[in-house]
Amino acid sequence: MEERKKRIALTWAVVILSLLVVGAAIAFGLIFGLKSSEPVANANMLEAGYSRAYYSLTDELNDMSVNLKKIDAISSAKTQQDMLYEVWASAVKASDNLSSLSVEGEGSVKLKRFVNQLGDYSKYLAKKSESLSKEEKENLVRIGDMLSEVAVALKGVEDELTSGRTFMGDDGVVEKVLPTVFEKFNEPSVEYPTLIYDGPFSDGLEGHKARNLDGNEFTPELGEKKIRAMFDLTENDKVEFMGASGGDLKILSYKIDFTKDGETFVSITQNGGKLLSFVRNADTETDGGFTDDELINKAEETALHLGFKDMKSVWVERVNGVGYINLALVDDGVIIYPDIIKVKLSLSDLSVLGVDATHYSLNHVIRNFDFEKIGSQDAESVIDGRMEIERVSLAVIPYGEYSERLCYEFKGNIDGGDYFVYVDAQSGEEINVLYVVNSESGTLVL
Q: For residues 409 and 378, what is the distance between their CA atoms, to the nearest angstrom?
């Protein structure tokens, strides 16, 4: 506990120091009339954000490692469950911190995917509400050992920071140091089921090479012009360029100060000016009683307004006053899971709190489908005969690291559990099975 307090104190010390630097930069600009004070302030705010994400990530990985090892000594099912929910909560925070750091490279992708899977696995085990088996405990201890190694490696980055190295810049920690740390990450060999909480293939692009990075290079001014058109901004709505970041994927970041709706943060690609995401804060404390159909209609209208056509809802979830709707491209009746968009709505008034279009914007291409060589009945003969089939669709799903497959998607029930089974429409081979972890808030809609 004392060690965690020290880490938290150190984190705040770094953040406060960064903010002092920001204040000094602004004051210097005001005193001497320098026009460059605002970019300097923005750069230091980004530096403080990276610092906060780094120290928080180190803490969460360390906490997960310790809690996973504690579980091995716990015999009470209830205490195990509480500890597993703590691991899940830490995994969510760690994943957010990894996204904030935006480190390039396969190691970063693998670590984030692993953290997300660990969170899902922990939540899955907690929901079983029964004592863990010996094998499950051994799996968790092995995962804890691996996370401990990553946490120690991250802790070593502090030496670079104390020596004066910054997070930003071509020679910064984000660009040069963290990729090396993450590349050393090797996922432990752990057998656990593929679990889904927010729709099939909601992380469709993670671990896959982006295929849509073409387009003219956008200047900050051209990016602002596109954002103004995208959000129907008036002259009174202020758009502020926050800076450029990224490695192979260059990102332009903006802040919109709406006259009525407050601040919104937007990211687009430098090549082509494609929308990656936007997020804003709003009231989520009250529930307006909106139906799933109303959430779906609003999400699909939002996607169309932003230029994303033929998007259909595949998942709706309600959590703490917020509605999460996943939209997938549907082309001639075929669900294209790699091209997915996530829309976040306030359940108070259906206002749009955010959109994550990263998977679609970086992965959407015109696809030429091979005609299916087997029929749906032949595909059905491959799957478990106990399945009570509810729906059969054609779908394109991510496969391996860089490819996709056209499949028959079977949605059905086996012994009270909901499953998705995917049979290759060319070879007739069963290539993927997903198990749905049902909750009171999640509902499949397609």
A: 13
Q: What is the dihedral of CA 278, 317, 123, 126, to 10 degrees?
A: 150
Do 346 and 284 contact (CB within 8 A), yes or no?
A: yes
Ramachandran area for residue 271 (φ above 0: left; ψ -120 to 50: alpha; else beta)? beta
Q: What is the pLDDT of residue 437?
A: 62
Q: What is the mean pLDDT of residues 369-390?
A: 87
Total-model pTM? 0.58
The confidence band for 133, taking pLDDT boundaries of 50, 70 and 90, is confident
146: which 2 tokens? Answer: 């691996």
In tens, the pLDDT along 306-348 reads 999 999 998 888 876 888 899 999 998 899 998 999 998 989 8
In the structure, what pLDDT confidence band is assigned to residue 194 with cuts at 50, 70 and 90?
very low
- pLDDT category of residue 27 using cuts at 50, 70 and 90: very low
Q: Which long-range contacts (CB under 8 A, 24 or more apart) does 366-374 make?
A: 367/331, 367/336, 367/396, 367/404, 369/334, 369/396, 369/406, 370/406, 370/425, 370/426, 372/406, 372/408, 372/425, 372/426, 373/425, 373/426, 373/427, 373/428, 374/425, 374/426, 374/428
Structure token digits, residue 172: 């910064």
The mean of the pLDDT values for the chain is 78
What confidence score (pLDDT) does residue 362 get?
84
Please spell the DSSP secondary structure of 272-287, one letter per residue.
TT-EEEEEE----SS-
Give the residue from 374, 362, 354 showing the smallest Cα distance to 398. Answer: 362
DSSP structure string for 378-398: HHHTTS-TT-EEEEEEEEEEE
The domains found in the chain, sorted by start residue, are 2-192 (no CATH), 220-363 (no CATH), 376-443 (3.10.450)
**Chain centroid offset of residue 241 CA:** 23
Neighbours of 368 (CB within 10 A): 5
Residue 255: Cβ within 10 Å count = 14
3-class SS at 238?
strand
Consecutive H or E run containing 140: helix 134-155
Residue in this structure with the two tokens 């705040």, named with its chain if needed: 12
